[in-house]
Every structure is written in C-alpha cells, then in structure tokens.
Amino acid sequence: MTAENNRLYNVLSLLRAFGAGSRQSVNIYETLRRDNMLDIPFDSLKEYRGIDEKCRKRISAVSADDIEKITECCKSADIRILPIYDERYPECLRNIPAPPAVLFIKGEFPDFDRDPAFCIVGPRKVTEFGRKAAYSLSRRLVKAGMVIVSGTATGADTAAHQGALSASGRSVMVSADGIITQLESKNRALVKKVIEKGCIISECMPKGKAYKFSFPVRNRIMSGLSLGVAVVEASNKSGALITANHAVEQGKDVFVIPGNPADEAYKGSNALLRDGAIPLLDSSDIFSRYVPDFPDRIDIEKAFSKESDKQLKKNSQKKSLSGLSKEALLVYNNLVKPEFTADDISAPDVDGAAILSALTELEFEHLITSLPGGKYKISD
Fold first, then answer.
1. pTM, whole model, 2 decimals?
2. To pair with 157 at 20 to 30 A between CA atoms, which of 34, 81, 200, 269?
3. Of 144, 122, 125, 145, whose CA–CA distance to 135 is shortest?
C-alpha cells in the first residue's frame, strides 16, 4: 500500500478498534504522528513501544477485510471519508479535546474554518414555542449567510433544519448513527433534503447504530464545528445541556432563550443563564457577537429585510393571540410605542426575565420585529 493508504487504513483501524469518541484512539494517533510512524502499517509496528499490549491486541483484531468493507460501502453510497490528517479537516474540530479520527460525510461539506456556522439545540419533546424558536432563528441566521448545525432527532433539531431549508440555506446534520442507518430511518425524507443543500456527517461507521452513550459523544462535534450554541429550551435532563457543556469546554459561546422559571421545560436552560450563558432575546444578539469577525460573510440586512420575512409572515398566524403565553399577551397589550426596547416595557405582574422571554415569543409569532441594536417594532 502507499503511504496515503496506510494512513487511512490506520485511522480507520483505530476507529474500528476503539469506537467513536475514544481518547485512546486520539492518543495513539498523536503518538504515531509524533514519531513519524503514521504511514507504517500496524502489522509492522510489533516492536514499537508507543502502543501498549492491550491496545495493540484490539487493533490487531481489526482485519484488512473489515477496512475494505468500510471503504467499499462508502464508495457505493457516495460517502466521503475525511481523516483527521487531511488538510480539508476543519481546524476548529481538530483543536477540540478528543477530535474524531475520521468523519464520514454525505453532501456538500462547508469550509468550517471560513464559513460562520452556528449550532441550534433543544429537546426531542420540544414545546410549540421552542419549535417555532428553533425554526425562526435558523431561518434568520441562514438568510444572513450562516450555516446551521444540529442533530438528527425530532423536535428542536428537526425544526432547526426545516428553518434553514425554508430559506434555501445550508444546514449540517450531525448523526450519532451511521449515515446509511440515518438514510433508512423514519427521518430519511428530511435527511435527503438536508443533503441537497448541505450535508450529513457522522463519526460512526456508515451502517452503525447509536447507543445511549453515542449521543453525548456526538454532541462534541456539533459544538466543535460551530462558533456558538443556542439552547432554545432545556429541562434539567435535556441532552441539549451536554452540547452546551461541550461548548463551554471548547471555549465556545453559549446562548440561551430565557424561559418561565416555574416551567420545567426551562429549568436546565435557566440554570445555564445563571451560570453565565448569554441571554438570547433575538437573532441580533448572535449577529452582534460574530459580524465583527465575519464582516464579508454575514449580511444583517438580508436577515432583516422585508423579503426575508415575507414567507414567514405568510406561513404564520400573525395576528392570532390565542396561542400566546399569559406573559407574552400582557407584554403585547402594554406596547405603547411603535418602536421600543425591553427597558421601555412596563407590564404588571411580569418581571424582567419574563419580559425578555415574552419578547422572544412575540418575535417568533411575528407580532413584533427585531431591529439591529436591541430594538423592536410592532409588526405591520
């Protein structure tokens, strides 16, 4: 085999031997790279002391047939294999703790070191407000030129991808299952639509199935590829909290939509705010953080243009107040100026945190429109 084939064989063997998210495989890879041994087949490393005997046995149990089946499977399904040593591997992902040794990709893979990507997460059993929040936020961000990153679950993940697709934007679906497994799942229709504009990626073998521990491992990739993470809602046991924790560990921003303190659906997300997460009142909070770093990649005018909002308004029950929370209805009924900020609002029995949550709800219902600079206006 050529040196390139040996390198690919070795990293696939590490993934096969230790599984997704293994720090052992990363440590072995780094040791081989440091000692310039990465191009040498594992069979020729019997005397090499950089790998202990227990690990050597696990690697030796992987056969050439195993690796050939993986590569042939990817070839027939048009799945790209991106190993960690490849120059096209995202630097932002390479620098996280325990980066994936290999990524499997189907679709158009963004240049994550140039394209501003943002992760949106929330629970599977998302509230109607959370679903609308994920959808609308995603749509607004892709209109401005950002790439959306989320998972494959029903609920908030699905809403985020649907929001990106509704604006003909790019989204990246990060799967804990293998890509072929996802393409055969109940969510396959959405997966195929995402691939048309963006891509699906996985650290898992193409036909592999996720286990309970696979999802926390997967979540580190979602945050690793992104500038920051938005939590639309999270209970104390939500998997979205794991993604947020990975983001913190990786030095990424965590944004959280404030929720009613008495609502169990927001116990986890409100705890993130208490611990220092950034309150997410509208998309302007995200734009103000990243536009200075990506002035040529993020276009706020497109995000807030009337043309951008036209389809959203058409598809929403803009003037219907029946579905609003009590707090949102109180705030809406106490709006006295056509343009205003959160500080201008005085609503009885609604405290500051509830006002911020209510404003977010009103924007997602298209009853108010956010403007740059933390301002709002009553929608026409």
1. 0.82
2. 81
3. 122
